[in-house]
Fold this sequence. Notes:
flat; EC 7.1.1.1; 0% strand
Amino acid sequence: MDQILIFFYTYKEAIFIIALSIFLGIEVISNVPAVLHTPLMSGANAISGVIIIGGIILVGHADATTLNTELILGIFAVIFGTLNVVGGFVVTDRMLEMFKKKKK
Length: 104
């Protein structure tokens, strides 16, 4: 228990910034109108694409003979980045379907 308290005391500024960014992010995202959702999702997909490229580079430079931190983080970055891009495209497609005229 003491180690946990020491950790929180040592990194209190970083924990405060993370908590503040979480609350700020929730507030900003909840007030985004539906019209702006598609361009924001496109920007998020671009950022996730950069994460995928970085993960591929990290996996390529990692030592494949041993299971090390670089290899594990690179694989997770590629998997989660790909899931985020695919999910973003699915959500963007559904949002764009809302703006199409319905056939009678």
